[in-house]
Amino acid sequence: MQKTITSILLASCLGAAWAMPPQVQLDSINASLDTLSGNMESTLMGKDDLPLAVSGYMAFRVKNFHYSEESPWVQNDRARTPVDAVLNVNVVAMPNSYMTLWSSMSFPFDLSGLYSNYLGSQPTGAETYDDRVLYDHSTDYFSSTINEEMNFGVDIRAGVFGAYVTAGGVIWANASPLTMWERETMPRFAWQYELFEDEKTVSTYYKEKVFKPVKEGGRAFWTNRSFGGVFMNVYQLPFNLKAQFMVSQPADADVATRDGLRMYGGQPGELEMSGTYDLRGSVYHGRIAKEKILDNLTLGLNYMGVMYDEASIYEREYRLQWINFSDVGPTLLNTHVASIDVKGNVTPKLYLMADLALNITDSLRYYRSPLAADYAESNIASGYMADAYESKTNTPQVGFYLKAQSKYVEGWPMTVEAIYLPKDFYSPYSLGNPSRFPSWRKNEAYLNGGSLRYTPNMAGLNFKLEPTFNRGYFDFQYGQHRQIEDGQDMIFFNYRLNGRNMWEGTNSWTKHKPLFIADSGNASNTAYVARAGVQQSSGDGIKQYRQQGGLYGGTWELWEGFVAYENAEQIKEGEVPEHTKWSSYMSFMGGYDIGGWFGTDRTIMMTLYAALSGISTSFAPIAYSESQKDMLLWSFYTQFEPSVAVTPKFHMVGIFGMETFRSENAYTAVSAASTVSKQSDLLGTYMGAYYKKAPINYLETAFGLGFDWDFADRAGLHFRYKFMTHSDELISDNNWHSHYIAAETKVWF
Questions:
Q1: How much is the pLDDT for 438?
Q2: How many whole angstroms separate alpha carbon 673 and alpha carbon 377?
Q3: Going by C-beta distance under 8 Å and a sequence separation of 6 or more, which residues neighbour residue 581?
Q4: For residues 307 and 362, what is the distance between their CA atoms, to the nearest angstrom?
Q5: Residues 536/543, Cβ–Cβ less than 8 Å
Q6: Contacts of 573 (CB under 8 A, 6+ apart)
Q7: Contact yes or no for 211/591 (Cβ under 8 A)
Q8: Sign of the dihedral through C-alpha 164, 170, 173, 178
Q9: Is the C-alpha dihedral spanning 511, 516, 517, 523 positive or negative?
Q10: Which one of 17, 481, 658, 745 is separated from 351 by 20 to 30 angstroms, measured CA to CA?
Q11: Helices (DSSP H) in 350-495: which residue ranges?
């Protein structure tokens, strides 16, 4: 066909030029040759029938961490320089106008050195800690690793029907706030150049992050949760209906695995949601929704279920944890959540989102079987068998969430959020779970709880005011939340100013492994001097339910936990105090372009963020001091960020910040030898350890300078230098100073 069309076109050109002189004829034909191929292809392809398209990006990164003042717990991380690169490729094929196929692939490379990798070919073998970590985002010992975009899918369209099916390592999806949703309203600053930033010019990047900081939604912060498995989205059906379905076997929902080697709590691994299809647990999700009710509203019905395999009892590590550290038999908790939600514009100036959910937990508690003698020891699991259990269902728990955004006052948009979640309400992938590690149920409280992230056992309100004006804006947020019932005074807080860089600076760091205790190298004899958490009655306790004090890594975060003990006697008795606690939060964020002050049209944006927050056992309108009545933990955080558009393609940004955490009710374990000369400090003993009072008084500071430069079309260089300090007034061994340098080149194609 192509030869035929080419011959016709050539014949036409020759015929039209035949009457011309020979040289003129040749010149005319030569001038037409460049357009012949394009003319021919235009007759063969429609705009919807492009057979193949490839896009993606390449990134090269180098980071350096150097401690100018060391803490013993980072002795293995005094200085290191990880160097890595990644190639992300998105391939789209369109065989016709009714079908699209795509595959997204990621190829990461560690360029810091070559080492042997025994577990690459023997994944079920014993761990060997002398193997080189392959990729800066991974501590897997496998020979290759994957990034979030490693998936494939097909999109099929036919009349009033349209759907796509995708499967792969990480699938991003959401449904309704109380079934499948992510939420955190901490703004993303221009200082933090995310590894996943979409392609955009430097000027666009700064406009989005400096003039209108993203707090919810958008690629800088998704409301999506991540899963590994198969996901189907039916986005077009008759009668304005749509639906979605998912089957997933995510690694971080795993209580026990096929071989017991991938239980979390020390075993390194990557990709929180990589679907491996051999885990002893599955996640099921379904949603059906009707759009355009009263023109602009969407009504949805949702289900989320997390179920585990009864045969987990055969796995030694899982079984023995319960036998050794619990007074009940091994237990599995299957979760079912159903909800009805509505969202959309009630009026052009009033947006509403509401979700009413029902949570039911089905527990399987194993017991010793009298038939144990009939089985070999390796099969009966010391008397416990997969079919020897009792099943119970808890009292159904009802939760509610409401969000209303009003633009009735011109230029002064306002948002009100309300939440009610009972203590036993558990929806692991909803906004009701503050952790990005959704497997375990724990009785604990979070600093900024309710205002930045929700937790079970909570009721309260958030109010936000977010006006904009010429050359600037400001945001004001105020939140008050209260526990519905008494809860353990186990408190967690995350380091907002330096937490990500602190976590990255350790050998234990992974992007997607939130359960790690953040000790240097994860196997060092010297550890962070932690404030005491929940003291287990036997050893370290069950992995899934441990609430030790100290540092814990998260997804791009670093957390610390402690119990606000009232006196040493509670530690002696192994008693965790319980109160109905209040969470108070107030923040201000504002930015103003002062470029006009200097007679230039270049943007010179000054941004300031400040927040006061606290957890107390009585109502506190504003948390202003750790000395307030009944205050268990108090924090002040501020960050100043100047940014300058030197040229449209070259922007500079700075950071100056401080963050404090203070609590009077904290204790730490010490050795007997260290207390001999300070008997007055010795306030109690528990399980052979000595404990003394050690109030929390942390001060963190940071200042730094960076730039973002479009040095070519679709190519950028991003550089950051930051000097950080951490001071623990009571425990000097925890003090440190650190230099952080990062540079990334990203090229899009």
A1: 60
A2: 45
A3: 445, 482, 483, 487, 489, 615, 616, 617, 632
A4: 9
A5: no
A6: none
A7: yes
A8: positive
A9: negative
A10: 481
A11: 377-380
pLDDT tens per residue across span 235-293: 999 999 999 999 987 665 656 654 444 444 333 333 444 444 456 778 899 999 999 99
Encoding tokens for residue 190? 């221009």
3-state secondary structure of 543: helix
Contact yes or no for 148/223 (Cβ under 8 A): no
If you ran DSSP here, which 8-state letter would residue 625 be given?
Answer: -
Torsions phi, psi of 693, nearest 5? -70, 135
- The reported pLDDT for the residue numbered 116 is 46
Question: How far apart are the two ends of the chain, measured CA to CA in Å?
Answer: 32
Helix H or strand E segment including 685: strand 684-686
- From 588, 590, 591, select the one nearest 613 (Cα to Cα): 588
pLDDT per residue as tens digits for the range 122-146:
555 555 544 444 444 444 444 344 4
Rounded-to-integer distance, Cα 538 and Cα 561, Å: 20
Dihedral of the alpha carbons of 403, 339, 285, 280, in degrees to the nearest 10: 110
Closest CA to 284 of 224, 356, 237, 335: 335
Higher-confidence position of 524 and 690: 690
Number of helical (H) and strand (E) elements in the chain, helices listed first: 8, 34
Query: Residue 288 is which amino acid?
Result: I
Residue pLDDT, tens place only, 480-511: 999 999 999 999 999 999 988 888 777 666 55
C-alpha closest to that of 53 among 24, 92, 82:
92
By the 8 A CB rule, do 513 and 553 touch? yes
Average pLDDT, integer, range 596-623 = 94
Q: Does the structure show a pLDDT above 60 at 539?
A: no
DSSP 87-125: EEEEEEEEEETTEEEEEEEEEEEE-S-----GGGT-TTS
Cβ proximity of 553 and 540 under 8 Å: no
Q: CB burial class (10 A; 0-12, 13-18, 19+) of residue 330? A: buried
User: Model confidence over 438-449: pLDDT tens digits?
Assistant: 656 788 999 999
Q: Tokens for 419?
A: 């939440």
| Distance from the Cα of residue 499 to its chain's centroid | 14
| Measured distance CA(324)–CA(729) in Å, rounded | 38
Q: What angle do CA 648, 649, 655 make, to 5 degrees?
A: 90
Per-position b or e across 557-580, b if 16+ CB within 10 A of its CB:
bbbbbbbbbeebebbeeeebbebe
Token reading at 95: 């065989």
DSSP string, 701-737: EEEEEEEEEEEETTEEEEEEEEEEEEEESS-GGG-EE
The residue type of 270 is E
Q: How far is the C-alpha of 442 from the C-alpha of 726, rounded, in Å? A: 28
